[in-house]
Amino acid sequence: MKKLLLTVLFLTLSALAFSGYKDVVKMKLSDGCSMQDIVELKDDFNNVMKQNGYDYQAEIWMPTFYPEEVAGFFYWVGTAPDLADFGPEFTRYFNEATKGSSPEAKLEADFNKCRTEVSRSGFQAQ
Predict the structure, then answer these.
(1) Which end of the chain has fewer CB atoms at under 10 Å, N or C?
(2) Domain 19-125: assigned CATH number
């Protein structure tokens, strides 16, 4: 019984130690778009998130020092309070994006013109 309680306590404290969830998406810029376009889209995205009560904000990371095979890529790094919060927010956003006249749908249409997603990873942050 002691082992069970200690295990539960350890797992609970471990979960509390993480202060956020990072959604990291490696992207490649599409022809005809600039990094300034991407930054403006990110700013528009963050405004829509805030106005509609989402608990997710994003920033753009551009490598400064990198191996040659990384040239031309940038990273979308979104932050949610935790993984449990990210899932429903992600689902809600993409449900809204399927509605033709929503701000989320406009954002996705604009994003699709300017970038290609290469990979996506999730990280617990401390």
Answers:
(1) N
(2) 3.30.70.100
